[in-house]
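User: Assemble these into one structure.

Assistant: Restating your components, then the assembled model:
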Amino acid sequence: MVEVRSLPGIADPQGATIESALPALGFGGVHGVRVGKAIRFHIEAPDEAAARRQAEELSRRLLANPVLEEAEVWVGAEEGAGEAAPGATELSAPPGPR
Amino acid sequence: MTARIAIVVFPGSNCEHDVAAAVEGLGGRAELVWHQRPDLGPVDGVVLPGGFAHGDYLRPGAIARFSPVMSAVAAFAAEGGPVTGICNGFQVLTEAGLLPGALKKNRHLKFLCTTVEVRIESARSPLADLAVVGRVLRLPINHFAGSYICDDRTLADLRSDERIVLRYLDNPNGSLDDIAGVCNRAGNVVGLMPHPERAWHPLLGSSDGRVLLDGLVHHGGGPAR
């Protein structure tokens, strides 16, 4: 998975609007809300390092515009990875709260 | 000699016929060029028109920059050929690295469809070299991602090299330094968010855009100045 988000300092009106709505729900202590994009895909690669290299390269060349955005790459096998074609490394979402 | 202007058509372009009508109306010859073509043919100028190339998916211009024709456009630009990107075409040129900076979503995330006043700030480019610096034009805008942004160093270069072609009088979208159009270092590649092709004839309500398109058509054959 690649997370594409606007660079620090770039205005994010969506994030600001969400943040301004939270106090009405009782979440008064939430700050720094930023909205980005999550792009998930599978890569056929000999190993995880090769898959990461490809993901980083395509993020740099296509998924993120470096003037506005930065990209973070998450690589890993997920459940059911054994069903993938031999030699394939599956990418999955990072662990953590949804 | 009649200038031949290539107008690149991407899937999702929607201003190519407006540009063609203006070019022909001003005495040029317009040729629509499908984005999958690997060459432009013998042309004197190139226009990347407005619209939503590839649905603006991912980011405006992000996919279009990889179309086969863009290699030919880059080669034409490198030789000094005049290239103009209007609206979505401006976005494509920044994504392709032919112009600096980027166009982000408008301040307040609002799609803008209105007429604005812009001032000619530099006559360095073929598009603006018939115009008088300081002249104010009323031109339509029609965009969601037209807020120009670049880093401080690029902005300093744009200012010192007189590469800011147009500025908004009343900034509608949050563009840095009120920028509505810029050109490359050589001056032959120009991008602008307003649509001069929608204001080239009195029947359209304004002919203020004509001075820009006249530059395109009548200086189309010359090298960058």
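Confidence is low (pLDDT under 50) at residues 82-98 of chain A.
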